[in-house]
Amino acid sequence: MHYEEFRREYTAGGLTREMLGSCPLRQFEGWLEQAVRAGLGDPTAMVLATVDEAGEPWQRIVLLKGLSHGGFVFYTNYSSNKALAMAANPAVSLHFPWNELDRQVIIGGRVEKMTVAESAAYFVTRPRESQIAAWASRQSRPVSARALLLKQVSVLKERFGNGEIPLPDFWGGFRVIPQRIEFWQGGEHRLHDRFLYRRQSDDSWHIEQLQP
């Protein structure tokens, strides 16, 4: 295959300074709503990039579960590779690749752990099977066979029966507080439109246009 031959023009529309609001979170909510209305698969899927204590970067897809207290929220096992990396280095990046709309949103900031009350409030809204999966999985740890994981699921189903499944003490939420947010709109002939919001010391946002 000749990968250099794969190219297309970006024609979904331009982006100007006049089209942007003063708050990047409100701008993001508008773009996300448009992504949902456009019928994109997994519009809340975002790439989370971390750097661990050894200085090694890694990426994975997680799902955005809300915007609260000025940050982007997701949930995971506290012993997972991502959680351990964030404990060592709270500087992270998020990336929303809305390719069908010729759009990207890139976020840089610092992550903070959410309260137990916040995590519990979300946990009770999860499907029961997902609640059990959170208990069953020692996320990111090796497993010799999938059958062992499924056996653990069966054990937990019997343990909890039809009763309420409590929040695991090793599972909960994280919130990424943004310092930079870039909105990228593809343009014809690779002349893309890029606008970067930077948080100022007074928590206002400075907007600048970047060359493609």
UniProtKB/TrEMBL annotation:
<feature type="binding site">
    <location>
        <position position="122"/>
    </location>
    <ligand>
        <name>substrate</name>
    </ligand>
</feature>
<dbReference type="GO" id="GO:0004733">
    <property type="term" value="F:pyridoxamine phosphate oxidase activity"/>
</dbReference>
<feature type="binding site">
    <location>
        <begin position="7"/>
        <end position="10"/>
    </location>
    <ligand>
        <name>substrate</name>
    </ligand>
</feature>
<feature type="binding site">
    <location>
        <begin position="75"/>
        <end position="76"/>
    </location>
    <ligand>
        <name>FMN</name>
    </ligand>
</feature>
<keyword id="KW-0560">Oxidoreductase</keyword>
<comment type="pathway">
    <text>Cofactor metabolism; pyridoxal 5'-phosphate salvage; pyridoxal 5'-phosphate from pyridoxine 5'-phosphate: step 1/1.</text>
</comment>
<feature type="domain" description="Pyridoxine 5'-phosphate oxidase dimerisation C-terminal">
    <location>
        <begin position="171"/>
        <end position="212"/>
    </location>
</feature>
<comment type="function">
    <text>Catalyzes the oxidation of either pyridoxine 5'-phosphate (PNP) or pyridoxamine 5'-phosphate (PMP) into pyridoxal 5'-phosphate (PLP).</text>
</comment>
<dbReference type="InterPro" id="IPR000659">
    <property type="entry name" value="Pyridox_Oxase"/>
</dbReference>
<dbReference type="InterPro" id="IPR011576">
    <property type="entry name" value="Pyridox_Oxase_N"/>
</dbReference>
<feature type="binding site">
    <location>
        <begin position="190"/>
        <end position="192"/>
    </location>
    <ligand>
        <name>substrate</name>
    </ligand>
</feature>
<dbReference type="InterPro" id="IPR019576">
    <property type="entry name" value="Pyridoxamine_oxidase_dimer_C"/>
</dbReference>
<feature type="binding site">
    <location>
        <position position="82"/>
    </location>
    <ligand>
        <name>FMN</name>
    </ligand>
</feature>
<dbReference type="Pfam" id="PF01243">
    <property type="entry name" value="PNPOx_N"/>
</dbReference>
<keyword id="KW-0288">FMN</keyword>
<feature type="binding site">
    <location>
        <position position="126"/>
    </location>
    <ligand>
        <name>substrate</name>
    </ligand>
</feature>
<dbReference type="GO" id="GO:0008615">
    <property type="term" value="P:pyridoxine biosynthetic process"/>
</dbReference>
<feature type="binding site">
    <location>
        <begin position="139"/>
        <end position="140"/>
    </location>
    <ligand>
        <name>FMN</name>
    </ligand>
</feature>
<comment type="pathway">
    <text>Cofactor metabolism; pyridoxal 5'-phosphate salvage; pyridoxal 5'-phosphate from pyridoxamine 5'-phosphate: step 1/1.</text>
</comment>
<dbReference type="GO" id="GO:0010181">
    <property type="term" value="F:FMN binding"/>
</dbReference>
<feature type="binding site">
    <location>
        <position position="130"/>
    </location>
    <ligand>
        <name>substrate</name>
    </ligand>
</feature>
<comment type="similarity">
    <text>Belongs to the pyridoxamine 5'-phosphate oxidase family.</text>
</comment>
<feature type="binding site">
    <location>
        <begin position="60"/>
        <end position="65"/>
    </location>
    <ligand>
        <name>FMN</name>
    </ligand>
</feature>
<comment type="subunit">
    <text>Homodimer.</text>
</comment>
<keyword id="KW-0664">Pyridoxine biosynthesis</keyword>
<feature type="binding site">
    <location>
        <position position="194"/>
    </location>
    <ligand>
        <name>FMN</name>
    </ligand>
</feature>
<feature type="domain" description="Pyridoxamine 5'-phosphate oxidase N-terminal">
    <location>
        <begin position="32"/>
        <end position="153"/>
    </location>
</feature>
<feature type="binding site">
    <location>
        <position position="65"/>
    </location>
    <ligand>
        <name>substrate</name>
    </ligand>
</feature>
<feature type="binding site">
    <location>
        <position position="184"/>
    </location>
    <ligand>
        <name>FMN</name>
    </ligand>
</feature>
<keyword id="KW-0285">Flavoprotein</keyword>
<protein>
    <recommendedName>
        <fullName>Pyridoxine/pyridoxamine 5'-phosphate oxidase</fullName>
        <ecNumber>1.4.3.5</ecNumber>
    </recommendedName>
</protein>
<dbReference type="InterPro" id="IPR012349">
    <property type="entry name" value="Split_barrel_FMN-bd"/>
</dbReference>
<dbReference type="InterPro" id="IPR019740">
    <property type="entry name" value="Pyridox_Oxase_CS"/>
</dbReference>
<dbReference type="Pfam" id="PF10590">
    <property type="entry name" value="PNP_phzG_C"/>
</dbReference>
<feature type="binding site">
    <location>
        <position position="104"/>
    </location>
    <ligand>
        <name>FMN</name>
    </ligand>
</feature>
